Amino acid sequence: MNELSGHPAPEARVSGREAGLRTQREPGSFRDRNGSVFYRDGAIFRSLSPEALANWQRLRETPFLAGRMAGGSIVETRDGDVAVAPDAAGVLEHARIPFVSYPYEWTFGMLQDAALLHLDLMRDALASDMILKDATPYNIQWQGVHPVFIDIPSFEPLGRGQPWVGYRQFCELFLYPLMLQAYRGIDFRPWLRGRIDGIPAEDMQRLMSTRDLLRPGVLLHVAAQSALQRRYEGGTKDVRGSLAEAGFDKALIVNNVTKLRALVAKLTPGREKTQWSDYDRSHSYDAADFEQKAAFVRRAAATRDWRLAWDLGCNTGTFSRIVAEHAEQVVSMDADWMAIEHLYQREKAGAGSRKLLPLVVNLADASPNQGWRGAERKGLAERGRPELTLCLALVHHVVITANIPLADFIGWLASLGTAVVIEFVGRDDEMVQALLANREDQYDDYHPENFRALLAERFDIRAEEPLKGGRRQIYFAEPRQAAG
């Protein structure tokens, strides 16, 4: 996977020669030696080996590439200036992806749509006698709710008798996670976050019951795959070469891809209700109070244009949409996967916003730096710091539910350098009373006076208003500028 966020990680090491060119390598772009990503003066480039350059020149002549780029499902790419990487055979320049995300932050529908895009690109490539050598969701990013394929060097010519070597990877990183949630009702996100290469067939088989063998795709893509891997695991036989010698025909790959697409398209995550999935109908505001809150957010958002905004605890995205009127990109995050699924499906069914990216994120246990040297996958702030952050009806969950000290949370917000629209929910509000009903009240820091003092210590408060008859208070605050 190669990240194209245009926001290089601050810890990335830069050689003396690269520093002179103001060039920075992407630390998560090393697994494919034929094409690695680097940044220079805010632009995003990829160096190509001679083999990758030849593949790109062939891909450029295919009938599908230009249309896919124009439609936004393949990242916009053009030949770059070889002077920026004189040791490379060729250079590509890519359009910027506003905010990089990972499949363990996606909803079921997002992973499903990413899988369908990958299979559609496979069919396009096969029609031009090319193939995708990789089959990982990390090669797909998002422009709002639109999936975008970003790993151009994954396309290569289809050799005579060549099998689909990415099939196993597709199963482990796309199909099995979707089956896990569709067939067993198990959240796939911890499994993908816990193992960078996905769910092995052997583990997936153990998770399936005997009854599950009758479900579509399980016998062929799980049980048979597991048996095949056990047979060849650790052996010296060249399985790829054996398949080629046996005359593995392109039509077999096309047939497999076509059937996989039909299988993936029919999977559903179930209809269970989660705590916040119907927030638009179940929030504790009456109509007048809710409109007052929305008007406050609208005024704060309209004070300037924002490059990147976060909406933490966004529920189904009502306030994200307000901020999106004044922001290039809004990342909408909530721990409730069904609320985010509703947001994704609503945006997808509507205008199909390219501004609003929904992600499943538990702020108290957000995605960490991980992978090789902790640099392949980045934490939230390292992928792009927000200029505006919404924290609406969130602080009481952070402090009381997650047991995070109030000062720590305010300090973390201040460390982002972001302006905030933040709501304090008082102890006399029914939502806080419900949280405190069955737990010891050890939250001496959770009081409105302390909250305001902590906020004023780290931010300049520009506006504030009481909500719900004074039981809540909403603030707009900007980061305090360092003296001098």
List the helices and strands and how they pair.
Layout: H1 16-20, E1 23-25, E2 35-40, E3 43-48, H2 50-59, H3 65-71, E4 77-79, E5 90-94, H4 108-127, E6 130-132, E7 140-143, E8 146-149, E9 155-157, H5 167-184, H6 189-194, H7 201-207, H8 218-232, H9 239-245, H10 250-266, H11 279-282, H12 287-301, E10 306-312, H13 318-324, E11 327-334, H14 337-349, E12 356-360, E13 388-391, H15 395-401, H16 406-415, E14 419-425, H17 430-436, H18 448-458, E15 459-467, E16 472-479
Parallel strand pairs: 10-11, 10-13, 11-12, 13-14
Antiparallel strand pairs: 1-2, 2-3, 3-5, 4-5, 6-9, 7-8, 14-16, 15-16
Short account of what is shown:
The chain is α/β, with parallel strands linked by helices and 484 residues long. The protein has helices spanning 16-20, 50-59, 65-71, 108-127, 167-184, 189-194, 201-207, 218-232, 239-245, 250-266, 279-282, 287-301, 318-324, 337-349, 395-401, 406-415, 430-436, 448-458, and strands at 23-25, 35-40, 43-48, 77-79, 90-94, 130-132, 140-143, 146-149, 155-157, 306-312, 327-334, 356-360, 388-391, 419-425, 459-467, 472-479.
